[in-house]
Amino acid sequence: MEVALGELADVQRWLSDDELREIYTSSYWNDIEEEKKKEWWIEDGDYGRCRRYLETSKLMEEYQQAEAFIRAIPQDDLRIADLAAGTGWTTALLSKLDNVAEVHAVEISLHRLERLLPHSVAMFTGRAEKIRRYLGSFYDLRLPAKSMDLVFLSQAFHHADRPIKLMVECDRVLKPGGRIVMVGEHGVGGSWLMRRFFKALLRQRRIVTDFHQLFPPDPLLGDHYYRRSDYYFLFVAMGYTLEHRIAATGQTMFIADKRG
User: Beta-strand (E) ranges in 18-147?
Assistant: First the structure.
């Protein structure tokens, strides 16, 4: 299917090939053949499967819940950093908001930025002129200090194996009074802890109380598990106010506001 793609600014490369290969889990997220098996492979212009996936998984509803906290910001020229932007479907939707002036999409997958993000913009009729793309690590944002009004992370923060470093970098680029919106976080609570505890007891026939043994990271996808108390401790220690919601997906959404 032939699709007319809008003009996007060229991808800026913050990372060399060698630097990219050194990033945790980058080999998986740059595996094009693996990506072609997924619902968001939309290079052929057939967007129906991706749209259905976003609807049935409730990821679209989750995004819309988060979008309300962006629309509520009393400003009409927001500059947003969309970190670990993936195929750019959230980037495209963010670019359509009337109070958004720029969306800076940062991602470690080159083919997602170059081959899929333009299709995400076409799929959702995004505003290509508002979008900038960067091949880079969210631990090392080559954006000026205090230049962003909002940092957006969708299914992203829990991929950080160094969450404090990520938080410090988000804080560096965020203006005083700015906001961080995170969606798709596991937010491990008491019931989930108990299920893992009894699962370990039944399978291993031993008592496991160490959180990181109960919730080890995924070595392929790079998922890490953090308790809601971990998020609160980190953000409050950094001088943010924080609240959370349970999103349509059942995962946790966090809204953090930086004190001015």
Answer: 78-83, 100-107, 131-135
